[in-house]
């Protein structure tokens, strides 16, 4: 058999597009910041989806979701980015319909529910691939614990977006596995794969616009020799970055420039959104009190025009994160793609993305574990909120003030360095972090997962659909509640005397199951079963005869029959 042109060899075996493809688990919350609100997870999800649609080498796009109607925006996007490429819906209630695709991509590391959804079909039926975003929430940390207890296999994966995140996830899994050994006196199951693949961007989206940049500088009243630093981020001092140390360093740098009589003025243009007035006060009042000699402006992070303006008019992109809420740092990639030099904290993902030729990473320091144990316990026990947990950790995280001030001055005084770093950053973003480079890495991972799954088929397990440990059938779980549990497979049903009783339509309207948007059976199916039993006359009929007459399967007919018995429309013959 001739090899297809689009096939790839893995361990000597041909691998077609379907085996390097993944069905995208789709819900607006993971991919649509316009509809659900701007945050890093959704912005990254939207960027991934566009990157995947642009660059994936696949025969079709498969989206796994609750309803087909959810996919209309994705279909429109696919028609724009990849005209003619098929988009297929796979219902979540029939997840095996993703075939021949053998992997599901889930936009979070917490895919415990999806592993249980797979269990009745067999743990070797498809692979699951999650991805990290923020990993500091209680939900995600509990999720990693639950992941080790779920039917997750070694052909599943959680993409870690940086080496720092890999170290964090591995540390927690080590602690979980220690607990399994000590508490359960058992060896932990194999871990999911933990590959490091960064997030990506579409570099072409961030090219500077000269007119927008000039307008920003005019708004700031920035002279040609002035230096504008910008940050695009959520503007919260307790969940993203504390601006006050930045203000102190900027003011100190401005004093040095004024002493040297360079004629330069420093400016900060923050582009983002405030969640509440408290954060706005910290940012605005802090700027007025701590850096009165530095220009300051706030722009709207929800505005594409404002984001374009700061990337076009700034001289330096700044991202001085001191918060555990951040795990990667997508915005610095955008700054690189715009051709700006970077000034960032030496923090998580930026340790990977920001090399010495594209910018400066300022030393960050935190206390050892024992000093911060109480913060973890206060959060885990509900004494502190997530915001308080992040804020407390941030408060005890240092970004080296002297080093920060020195780097601000170095960048301000050396336009050639800024230009050189900006050019190097643009090239680095294009060669390493454009989705054109990232999507093939993800497809290679999915291909490896597929190969592992096929090789490990003997270790796969199928779970009984009505006895899942986390979701047993309610009439199994609560089997001791009724007088008895029954099967109606051999029962004959006869129409009950309808005298003086409301009709089926009247009962269904009055009961109004549709008010909960969940009906145990379709009303026309209920009517068809009742009509078949009525036509059978005094001899009645069984579920096999109902199935033959209506095409409604015996299990579905059994559900309808017990409801008809409940409401007295029929009786046992």
Topology readout:
Blueprint: E1 8-10, E2 13-15, E3 23-25, H1 28-31, H2 33-36, H3 40-55, E4 60-65, H4 72-81, E5 86-91, E6 103-105, H5 112-118, E7 127-131, H6 138-149, E8 157-159, H7 163-184, H8 210-220, E9 227-232, H9 243-259, E10 266-272, H10 277-290, E11 295-300, H11 304-313, E12 316-319, H12 331-337, E13 342-345, H13 350-353, E14 359-362, E15 364-366, H14 369-380, H15 386-395, E16 397-399, H16 401-413, H17 415-433, H18 435-455, E17 467-468, E18 471-472, H19 474-477, E19 493-495, H20 504-511, H21 523-535, H22 543-550, H23 554-566, E20 570-572
Parallel strand pairs: 3-4, 3-6, 4-5, 6-7, 7-8, 9-10, 9-12, 10-11, 12-13, 13-14
Antiparallel strand pairs: 1-2, 15-16, 17-18, 19-20
Helix pairs in contact: 3-18, 6-7, 8-11, 9-10, 9-16, 12-17, 14-15, 17-18, 21-22, 21-23
Folded structure, characterized:
- The chain is 45% helix and 14% strand.
- The protein is an alpha/beta fold and 573 residues long.
- Strands 5-4-3-6-7-8 form a 6-stranded parallel sheet, with helices on one face.
- A hairpin with a 2-residue loop joins strand 17 (467-468) and strand 18.
């Amino acid at each position: 058999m001739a090899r297809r042109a689009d096939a790839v060899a893995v361990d000597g075996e041909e691998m077609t597009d379907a085996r390097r493809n993944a069905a995208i688990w789709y819900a607006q919350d993971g991919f649509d910041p316009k509809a659900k609100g701007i945050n890093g997870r959704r912005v990254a999800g939207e960027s991934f989806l566009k990157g995947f649609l642009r660059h994936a080498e696949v025969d079709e796009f498969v989206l796994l979701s609750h309803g087909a109607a959810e996919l209309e925006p994705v279909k429109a996007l696919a028609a724009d980015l990849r005209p003619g490429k098929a988009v297929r819906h796979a219902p979540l209630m029939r997840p095996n319909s993703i075939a021949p695709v053998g992997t599901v991509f889930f936009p979070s590391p917490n895919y415990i529910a999806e592993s249980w959804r797979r269990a009745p079909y067999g743990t070797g039926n498809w692979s699951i691939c999650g991805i990290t975003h923020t990993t500091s929430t209680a939900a995600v940390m509990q999720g990693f614990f639950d992941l080790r207890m779920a039917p997750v296999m070694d052909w599943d994966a959680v993409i870690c977006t940086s080496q720092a995140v890999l170290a964090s996830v591995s540390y927690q899994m080590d602690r979980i596995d220690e607990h399994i050994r000590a508490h359960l006196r058992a060896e932990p199951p194999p871990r999911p794969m933990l590959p490091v693949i960064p997030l990506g961007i579409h570099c072409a989206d961030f090219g500077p616009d000269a007119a927008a940049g000039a307008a920003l500088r005019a708004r700031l009243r920035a002279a040609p020799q002035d230096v504008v630093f910008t940050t695009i981020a959520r503007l919260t001092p307790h969940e993203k970055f504390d601006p006050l140390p930045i203000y102190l360093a900027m003011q100190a740098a401005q004093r040095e420039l004024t002493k040297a009589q360079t004629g330069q003025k420093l400016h900060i243009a923050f582009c983002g959104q405030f969640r509440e007035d408290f954060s706005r006060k910290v940012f605005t009042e802090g700027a007025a009190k701590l850096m009165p000699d530095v220009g300051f402006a706030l722009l709207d992070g929800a505005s594409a025009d404002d984001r374009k303006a700061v990337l076009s008019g700034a001289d330096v992109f700044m991202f001085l994160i001191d918060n555990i809420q951040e795990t990667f740092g997508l915005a610095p990639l955008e700054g690189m793609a715009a051709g700006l030099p970077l000034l960032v904290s030496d923090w998580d993902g930026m340790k990977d993305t920001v090399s010495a030729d594209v910018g400066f990473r300022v030393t960050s320091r935190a206390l050892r574990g024992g000093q911060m144990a109480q913060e973890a316990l206060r959060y885990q026990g509900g004494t502190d909120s997530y915001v308080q947990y992040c804020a407390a950790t941030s408060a005890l995280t240092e970004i080296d003030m002297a080093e920060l001030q020195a780097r601000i001055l170095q960048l301000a005084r050396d336009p050639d360095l800024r230009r050189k770093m900006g050019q190097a950053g643009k090239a680095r973003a294009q060669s390493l972090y454009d989705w054109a480079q990232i999507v093939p890495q993800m497809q290679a991972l999915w291909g490896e997962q597929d190969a592992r799954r096929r090789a490990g088929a003997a270790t796969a397990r199928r779970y009984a659909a009505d006895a899942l440990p986390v979701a047993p059938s309610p009439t199994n779980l609560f089997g001791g509640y009724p007088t008895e549990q029954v099967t109606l497979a051999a029962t004959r049903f006869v129409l009950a005397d309808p005298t003086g009783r409301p009709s089926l339509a009247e009962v269904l309207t009055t009961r109004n199951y549709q008010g909960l948007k969940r009906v145990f059976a379709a009303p026309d199916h209920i009517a068809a079963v009742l009509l078949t039993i009525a036509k059978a006359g005094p001899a009645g009929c069984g579920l096999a005869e109902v199935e033959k007459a209506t095409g409604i399967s015996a299990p579905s007919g059994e559900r309808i029959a017990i409801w008809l018995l409940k409401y007295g429309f029929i009786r046992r013959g």
